[in-house]
Amino acid sequence: MFDRDKWQEIFDTIRKHKLRTFLTALGVWWGIFMLVFLMGAGQGLQNGVVRMFGTHAKNALYVWTQRTTMPYEGLAPGRYPQLTYDDIVAIETRYSDLIEHIAPRLFVPSGEVTHGLQKGSYTVRGERPDLLQIEAMEMVNGRFINKLDMEQKRKVVTIGKRVREVLFGEEDPIGQYVKISGAEYLVVGVFASTRRGGENAAEDEETIFMPLTTAQQVTNRPRDINWFVCTIDPRVRVSSVEEKIKDVIRDRHKIHPDDPQGVRSDNIEEEFREIMGLFFGIKFLVWIVGIGSLLAGIIGVGNIMLIVVKERTREIGIRKALGATPGSIVSMILLESVVITAVAGYLGLLSSTGLIYLMQVAVGEDVQFFANPQVNLGVGLTALLILVVAGALTGLVPALTAARVQPVVALKDE
Amino acid sequence: MIELKNIRKAYTTEYTKLEVLKGIDMNIEHGEFLSIMGSSGSGKSTLLNIIGILDDYDSGDYRFDGELIKGLSQRQAAQYRNRLIGFVFQSFNLLSFKTALENVALPLYYQKVDRRKRQTVAMEYLDMVGLKDWAHHLPNQMSGGQQQRVAIARALISQPKVILADEPTGALDTNTSYEVMKIFREINQQGITIIVVTHEHDIANMTKRIIHLKDGLIDGSTSVATASAGS
To answer: Are residues A139 and A76 in the same domain?
Structure first.
């Protein structure tokens, strides 16, 4: 019964001091709101960028050749080293322990691709089955090109989802034929991109894959490849293997070891690492700003508690004259502050997660660099707890002082 | 009931020491209706505050019903005040954000009396001072006299042994002052001791005994019957 009275007393006081309560609440609300909202937005940015990678292997290395710029072993600069399947075999043999998958590829000049009356123009590439494990794609229908296709140089293709939509509409494409540069190819599978946001997925899905051997045959380049991508053992940093692989090619094609052109590569791991580093920076900033606004909130609460206690000195004097013990005064002020900060903080938590939810709904799937903003509830609740405790602590000192003052002094306060 | 022996009290600041009470000896019996008179600075309010355990004293002995009131913890002092003493102040000291009824009920809250009971009892006391219809008004919606009557009801609700009134009529006009004093007289007739601090002769003359205070010392005590006869 006593407890209920105490709460009644607190809610009475809060209800009758709306401005004071509002001001205290505002600071707390803002602090929590800023922290949680910033963190959610930061996470959204990160998710958006990570999503652009899809299931693309983060330990991938792309290697290609360019015209040389330095003379080497009696050869003039300006040569174009043509990568061949033998290079791939050489690399595979030499670094079989470091390389997980390797996918050499050859572009097939295609012109128009047709199926019946439907036609479209798509990128056509010869690939090895390994590609499925490296790039961001998943099979929707049928299968990917396999080893047997390679060995028998079968005229089969796996087409992107977008290709299927244009050429086949609602029809099942598996077992049907598409015509590429006058030759018929059997469709064995349909794939979709796992990358989201921006143009990436659409581009990926406008591609047709055939076995590398088939591509070499139809282009009459029996050993050639354009470039290759490989994935490295995840226990090893890609950059530590990068030069070793390029050295194999330099050696085989007589490219000067110091030639900045000749062999070029693109390290996805490094790229990913840089982006993650950037996000670490952003998160750090968010934390600084968030903690700053939380601190401002705490100071605000403390300030208002100081004013509140000062303002209530006379009231405290009266209450003491009527028989209030110091303990009851302190607990009254503290509970009041805790109730206000807890409720305001909870509202801050609620409104920031609400806003983030709305952003998520508004943003949907299609916006680049932003996806699924998330709130770490644990962090939000911790921040709330800190604010409540801080509000109580900052109120405690003046409350204790006020409770200890002789009532006669408190009563004299104007 | 109240025994004061050689009570001394000084206010010291960094530079000055102001002796307010220089050795007060005083006995107040159960059921007295007493006023303490003196010019401003005579120490009458300080004396009342010491009796009301709102302030402490430097030396001497203060006994209430034989119990020594000295060096109490704030908690003990609060409990004594709540049980033994009712206060009426010059500036009423009602909580401005609480209604008349809530103000009156407050001492019972600190006695941990059930809320419903508190309200019922508070209503009875408000009725007693003739303000039943004003129970749900805030203090600033009431006249000075009404506010002081609310304060008196609040002082009475804990059924204290003594009511201490510090210039209870200081903020009121003559008619209202007399009404307040009439209420005090009625309360006193029920056996409650009342001590009024005032500097107004007519108010003091409505009590039964006057103690004169001058420069922190008692300057004599007159019983009103003889005083009236003498003048």
So the answer is: yes
Q: Are residues A8 and B115, on separate chains, in Cβ contact within 8 Å? A: yes
B137 and B110 Cβ atoms separated by less than 8 Å = no
Of A315, A322, A404, the CB nearest to B107: A322
Q: A66 and A176: one domain?
A: yes
Same domain? A66 vs A49: no
Q: A333 and A286, same structural domain?
A: yes
State whether A308 and A337 are in the same domain. yes
Do A105 and A230 fall into the same domain?
A: yes
Count: domains in chain A: 2
Interface of A with B (CB under 8 A): 1-2, 4-5, 8-9, 12-13, 16-17, 314-315, 317-328, 403-404, 406-408, 411
pLDDT in tens, B9-39: 998 888 888 889 999 999 999 999 999 998 8
pLDDT in tens, B152-196: 999 999 999 999 999 999 889 999 999 999 999 999 999 999 999
Among partner residues B52, B98, B115, which is closest to A5 by beta-carbon distance?
B115
Q: Which residues of B touch A8 (CB under 8 A)?
A: 115
pTM of the full structure: 0.67
The CATH number of the domain covering residues in B2-223: 3.40.50.300
Q: Write the residue in A315, A404, A406 that is nearest to B55 by C-beta.
A: A406
Mean pLDDT of A23-49: 83
Cβ-Cβ contacts under 8 Å between A and B: the total is 75
Question: Do the Cβ atoms of B115 and A4 come within 8 Å?
Answer: yes
Q: Give the residue extent of every domain in chain B.
A: 2-223
Percent residues over pLDDT 70 in chain B: 97
Mutation for testing the B interface, residue in A5, A7, A11, A322 having most B CBs under 10 Å: A322
With tokens 């796992």, the residue in question is A194
Q: Which two tokens stand for residue B5?
A: 């022996």
Nearest residue, CB atoms, B78 vs list A323, A408, A411: A323
Domain boundary among A212, A236, A268: A268
Instruction: Tell me if B81 and A322 make a contact (CB, 8 A cut-off).
Output: yes
A14-28, B18-32, B75-89, range with the lowest pLDDT: A14-28
- Partners of residue A326 in chain B, C-beta under 8 Å: 74-75, 78
Structural domain of A366: 4-53+273-412
Check A404 against B74: CB less than 8 A apart. Answer: yes
Examine the domain organization and report whether A299 and A337 are in the same domain: yes
Number of residues in chain B: 231
For residue A95, is pLDDT > 50?
Answer: yes
